[in-house]
Amino acid sequence: MTGRIFLKLIVTVTVLLTVALVSADLLTSRVAEANYIETLRRELTDKSRTLALIPESNLRTQLHEYSSGADARVTLVAPDGVVLADSDANPDRMENHRDRPELKAALHGSPGWSIRPSPTLGVPFLYVAIPVRYGAIRLAVPLSRIHAQVARVRRQVLLATALAFIPAVLIALILARQYSRRFGQIIHFAGKLSSGNFETHLDAAGRDELGILAGQLNETGEKLHAMLEQLAKERAELERLEQFRKEFLISVSHELRTPLASIQGYAETLLDGALHDPEHNARFLGIIKQNADRLGRLVADIMTLSRVELGTQKIETAPYPVCELLRENTESMRPMAEKKDIAIVLELPPEETDAICDPEAVNQILNNLMENALKYTPSGGEVRVGAAIRDGMIEIWVADNGAGIPKQDLPRLFERFYRVDKARSREMGGTGLGLSIVKHLVRAQGGEVAVDSDIGRGSRFSFTLPRAPSVVLSPEPDAAAPASATSTQSAENGGVS
What percent of the chain has pLDDT over 70? Predict the structure, then answer.
């Protein structure tokens, strides 16, 4: 890849230099030829004026000598165009010259010149003519002399250009090698990007266009890598949600089927004649009501869990006294505890302890935890509810001395519809969603849940809430007290007022 780029760059540079060389040669040739013709025209004009000072008789007799001295062909022309004498041809055989462009101007009193082939000799000449008293004097130089001078200038220019061409080619080789290598790196990097390898990095050294391009390609690769990672995470999350949806639907269908089947079965039994059976109809109706209540609780818990997980549950946090939360909740649960002869023990923190929380959400959390504790604690047992400050957070716990939970069940205890003892849980009216609701409500308020349990010793469920900062209000000084008294009091308190 790098070799092809290098070859293309070298060919391109060589073509450009060749075109520049040819253009310079053509331009130089034209300029040199034009300058030389102009210089030679002036020289011939000056020589013609010098010859015009010589008497006509002497000029005719010594025309060849003067022609050699002027290094040009000399022609004398009468006012009517008749050739009087010529240094290179017999004037008697030459036609009338009054229509020659240069002589036409000279015979009318002004110098003239032209470039054209000679009818007499058949080769191109530069002609220059000036007027004299007996007609006109014309000097002519063959263009071959001009071409020879121009060719000499071209050779010199070409030599100088060739000498400059060599270092230019060497510099072009170095630059082509450098740029081909960098182009090759960029192309190789782009190939890696196209194949999905976004972890590679391109050396972006330099502040030129290729350096800027390399930097932008690196940035593009990083963005694509981050985008693909995000897409992969979103895809994994979608797959997880889809799996959860399927499991959730299966679990909900299973949980709903049991009370619905019970309601349907006992309702059909009543319709088949048991409605008028005083021995069984009241019991059947009680079972129907029990399953309807269970169904209502299940639907309510599903709705609550869905709102919390989707973030539509309204959570409004503010500082709230922890002691007040615990007292209110335990008082509402005492009837249920007294019915089972279970003691509720409160372990309260200092009264000024406040938690940043939503009181309704915390009340629902405590209700779920205490209901579970009272359900699984035997008659005569004890449920302890308390709170304390732990590492800048408020820890609230509900502990019982019931049967306890096996260690292998603890990691899955907060999953939806997970039950340690499914038969006993359904018998007690549990939906299997209470602890999952607890976990999500706690996390929605910035806390975490935990559980610790031993078989035969009971269980301890706890959760944390952010602690509200303590506000210490300084007593306002008595406005009626004199300033001196205030200053004296401050001094007695060590200078702190």
Answer: 76
What does each C-alpha distance from 335 to 2, 338, 339, 340, 376 come to in angstroms?
86, 5, 6, 9, 16
Looking at per-residue confidence, does 275 or 42 come out higher?
Answer: 42
Region class of 417: left (phi > 0), else alpha (psi between -120 and 50), else beta: left
Q: How many CB atoms lie within 10 A of CB 382?
A: 16
Cα-based distances in Å from 81 to 13, 84, 95, 125, 280 = 59, 9, 9, 19, 156
Cβ atoms 56, 76 nearer than 8 A: yes
Q: Of 169, 170, 155, 158, whose CA–CA distance to 22 is shortest? A: 158
Q: Does residue 427 sit in helix, strand or coil?
A: helix
Residue type, 377: T
Query: Residue 420's closest CA among 467, 453, 468, 384?
Result: 453
pLDDT confidence tier of residue 147, bands split at 50, 70 and 90 = confident
Global pTM? 0.44
Instruction: Give residue 428's identity as a one-letter amino acid code.
Output: M
Neighbouring C-alpha atoms within 13 Å toward the C-beta of 398: 27
Segment 213-265, tens digit of pLDDT: 777 777 777 777 788 888 888 888 788 767 766 666 666 665 666 677 777 77
The DSSP 8-state label assigned to residue 123 in this structure reads S
**Pick from 69, 41, 61, 55: which is nearest to 138 by CA?**
41
